[in-house]
Amino acid sequence: MFLSRAQDTSRHPDHLIHFLPHPKARALVTLVLLALALGTSACGTQESPPPRSEEVAKAAPKLEILQPSAHLMPNMGAVYMTIVNNGTAADRLVRIESPLATGAETHETLEQDGVMRMVPRPEGFEIPAGGTVTLEPSGKHIMLLEPSPAEEGASTLPVTLHFETSGPLEVEARLRALTE
Ligand SMILES: [Cu+2]
Predict the structure, then answer these.
(1) Pick the CATH number of 63-176 from 2.70.40.10, 3.40.190.10, 2.60.40.1890, 3.30.1450.10
(2) What secondary structure does DSSP assign to 104-138, as a single string?
């Protein structure tokens, strides 16, 4: 929808004032805005103007990957890790790739009728704002399809994680013994 300049009040720096019903509060905000304007012009520097409240409040995920590790078997592998979201918006792990595997899928191991089954999770894994998702054996995990055997002496496996919002994250998953 097209908005003319006059209609688009949300982008006007004074719009804050209209949300404050009390005249004293309005006057105070006006004074603060005035002080900010004087402050930046008086010191004569090229500082950028203070961020607008809508920019400060914009929610975003902030992801951290802890302890990535992998089990490699002859025809498949599994990658585990803890994904922490220290941000204020949810994100979603949607795609995984490794140069050492033909593909990678998000799976979850569930107990159904007393039997442990691996279920594909093509929608990926949501990482809630302020939350943690743990990928672990017999839980959510990343399945590697046809991984190459680890090179002699290699101790890690490179994996790239793609998220809905955050940029891709490259991790080195520590190769675990199968008994680990
Ligand atoms: Cu699996």
Answers:
(1) 2.60.40.1890
(2) EEEEEEEEETTEEEEEE-TT-EEE-TT-EEEE-TT
